[in-house]
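It is worth pausing here to work through a concrete case rather than discussing structure prediction in the abstract. The textbook approach is simple: state the sequence, then state the predicted structure, then interpret. We follow exactly that order.
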Amino acid sequence: MKYLLLFSSVVLLFGCGTTTSSDDSNDEFIDPYADPPGYSGDPFAGFGPVATIRFPAEGDTEIEEPDDLNGPWSIQVAACGSMDAALTLRDSIAAQTGYPVFVDHIGSYYKVRVGSFATSSDSDGLRVQLRSSGYPDAWSVQR
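Step two, the predicted structure:
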């Protein structure tokens, strides 16, 4: 055991050496935003022109206006994270209630809203119906 400790100490002291090396073979600055060396192609070849650019932002709002607008009030039943989920829910509720159902894209949510009423109290009957039909968080909202 004593010899193992002595051997380990000698290897540690003399085995590491005292010289250091550096890689000075590439002293030129490489621009990380430039094309790779030897690249001469067009990175946008094969893509059409950009027609629109959509940036998500606070207050990003797309509201689907009903054709037969009776008023600004609706019943919101859900706020979905994806358009697919909102459209599936929209179709289900439209078949169940017979009322027009809208999907409003506000911020990062797709809000599913039912009906179009002149006042909040006009929407009370539908709100009660939706709550008893499995949407307990349904509430009146001004669109």
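Step three, interpretation. The chain has a mean pLDDT of 78. Residues 83-97 form the longest helix (15 residues).
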